[in-house]
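Could someone model adenosine-5'-triphosphate with this protein?
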Amino acid sequence: MQPLCAGNSAGIETVGTVGQNSQDQEGAAVIELDNVGYNYGGGELLSNVSVKLAPGSFHFLTGPSGAGKTTLLKLCYGALTPTSGRARAFNMDINGLDRDQMAFLRRRVGVVHQDCRFLDHLSVLENIALPLTVSGRDITQEEANLRELLTWVGLSERAHATPPELSGGERQRAALARSVILSPDVIIADEPTGNVDWEMSQRLLQLLVELNHMGKTVLVATHDLSLIRAAKKQVQARVLRISNRQLQQAGADL
Ligand SMILES: Nc1ncnc2c1ncn2[C@@H]1O[C@H](COP(=O)(O)OP(=O)(O)OP(=O)(O)O)[C@@H](O)[C@H]1O
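Reply:
Sure, complex below.
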């Protein structure tokens, strides 16, 4: 299955020549946090966090509510800059990105936000196309690819619905479709299976696994340990856990 993204009739691009599911921590990383700390002002939330996301790897990020999962994801995609240490993406220092570099990062990293962040007055199709519109592309030229992407996430019948009319699972699938519309190398998803039933969480997991099988690097924050266990039967996933401000690799028991 090759979901097509707008302007990319050959299918979603893959990253370089690195093999699927590479967990190689020694080689080049698409995203790297090096001794990163973060503080919103009320004391350090994350401390000395180091992690490398190798091209084509699949990572879960878990930890208790409020541990800093969303914060860590934001550090990875440049929505926050570390208060100490260094964050790098695609060999750029996230701390000092100029406008063009930030635009590049936005294209290369697709984000599924916890709250989806749709514009409720636009249709599902228009919301999914929004990153194209924002980057000045003519979406009438992208219609076929948009339709194909909607079919991939199982929303072809919902193209003209508005976000408030969608179920939780439909919203998450629309958010996932939007995150890949610019054919990114990395997908970062924040609780993509929150508020959906088991069957739907398996369907969403399947889509993430398919993206990983195409060579995408995938980073998923989740509370759902059963989702992680199900994923580990399908992909070679590394599980990271935030505990006491630090990032640890979870044991094989997960
Ligand atoms: N913009 C902000 N300003 C101040 N504090 C913040 C901000 N965003 C998050 N926090 C605080 O940082 C802590 C970690 O929040 P974060 O959302 O990263 O945790 P989380 O592990 O993703 O939580 P959950 O699992 O509940 O989504 C929380 O105490 C939160 O209140």
